[in-house]
Amino acid sequence: MAQPLKKVPIKKKSTIADLKSKMGLGVSVEKGKIQGSSNADKPIDWLIMPKAFQEALKLPGFPQGYVSTVCGHSNTGKSTLINHAIVAAQRQGLIPVIYDTENNFDFKYAIDMGMVAEPVYGDVQVEKVDPVTGEVSWVTENRIIEYDGPFFYFNNAILIDRYGDKDYATGKTLAKKRSKAIIEDIVYSINEFLEYQANGDIEQGLVFVWDSVGSVGGLKAYNSKVGNPMFDAGTISAAFQEIMDSSIPSSRKVSAKYTNTLILVNKVWLDATSNPVGPPSLEMKGGKSITYRSRLIILVGGQLKASVKRLSAISKGLTYNYAIQTKVKVLKNQLPSPFNVTYEGDFICTDIGIIGTSKEEQDEYKKNRAPELLKKLNEIAINNGKSETVTNVEDISFVEEDGEEMILE
């Protein structure tokens, strides 16, 4: 007797969607909140820069959630751009975290440009030396001892005070603090802020600004007692890898609560050995990893020379350099379309920020700032012991002159 055939159910193959669900991939929205880790970016947002910047580079500003670098020779306008980014961060409800390892951050200049920072005064003992007798005395003066506001600021001394007892090689605490700030201090500090943010102690996006790469060395160079650019380039590559490749980019994702940004200032040098028969190549301090990992690189000034014009107010033999006109160019742009443009132009860096180069904008600046320019000229007169001062803005004339020639560092 023939046996009845058994019906064997055909095993259904898992779909990709089934497998993603099993692996816990993908996101969902519950009560307006995203659950899970997304692979989609938020719409790109910007630290909005002045009109002159936008017209020169055809970009709204610095992109949030990216690593950007501002590079150039000395005195070409890098700090002016950075101050604008700090001001934009505050105005847009973000917290600037400033690492000033050149120890040159000018709070007065930043405040004039719009930074929110209040001077804190205190009575301090000041040494006075009699110019005739040489006698030394001490007097009490009420001076600015601190600036406070919606920002965090670190210079070398503050970095040493906060992180100088950390031995990053062993993870132990040193009995005696280091005498110098190092690259790893900045990395540790950034990660500390990101942890504060993740734990809910900070409920805003962060804008990290480091001015500038190459101004401090790493632990290896510190321990060797010999400065070595190769050591420091390796330290930057290794120490910043997680921040540049993961922490900052991942904050762009839809599922990330806050968007964080890193802006680096980098001086440049000219490598004459790379092309013996041609012009030297422009290189940035800190090694190639900064170039590779930055998604936007802006060059301020020229490549072989500063390429700036000095703008001066002159009267009665007195000269006050009130601005520079500088070139600006996008060297690298890996932003999403349609913002992946590489324009170049120029603008003017003044004592209150950048303005355009048109005659109308310059005339407007001179008109509005004439009283301040008059004040500066008279300060120069007093400091130089001149009895004659400038009394009328009509007595001020304005001149332009070329800046430095080729720079070989």
Outline the secondary-structure elements:
Blueprint: H1 16-23, E1 28-30, E2 33-35, E3 46-48, H2 51-57, E4 61-63, E5 67-72, H3 78-91, E6 95-100, H4 107-112, E7 118-129, E8 136-148, E9 152-155, H5 156-163, E10 166-167, E11 172-173, H6 183-198, E12 206-213, H7 219-224, H8 229-239, H9 241-250, E13 261-271, E14 281-284, H10 288-293, E15 296-300, E16 308-315, E17 318-333, E18 344-350, E19 353-355, H11 359-383, E20 397-402
Parallel strand pairs: 5-13, 5-15, 6-9, 6-12, 12-13
Antiparallel strand pairs: 1-2, 3-4, 7-8, 10-11, 13-14, 15-17, 16-17, 16-20, 17-18, 18-19
Please give a quick description of this structure.
The protein has eleven helices and 20 strands.
Care to describe what's here?
This protein has 409 residues and is α/β, with parallel strands linked by helices. It has helices at 16-23, 51-57, 78-91, 107-112, 156-163, 183-198, 219-224, 229-239, 241-250, 288-293, 359-383, and strands spanning 28-30, 33-35, 46-48, 61-63, 67-72, 95-100, 118-129, 136-148, 152-155, 166-167, 172-173, 206-213, 261-271, 281-284, 296-300, 308-315, 318-333, 344-350, 353-355, 397-402. It has a domain at 40-116 and 151-301 and 327-346: Rossmann fold, CATH 3.40.50. It has eleven helices and 20 strands. The longest helix has 25 residues, at 359-383. It is globular and about 125 Å long. The chain starts with 15 loop residues before the first helix and ends in a 7-residue tail after the last strand.
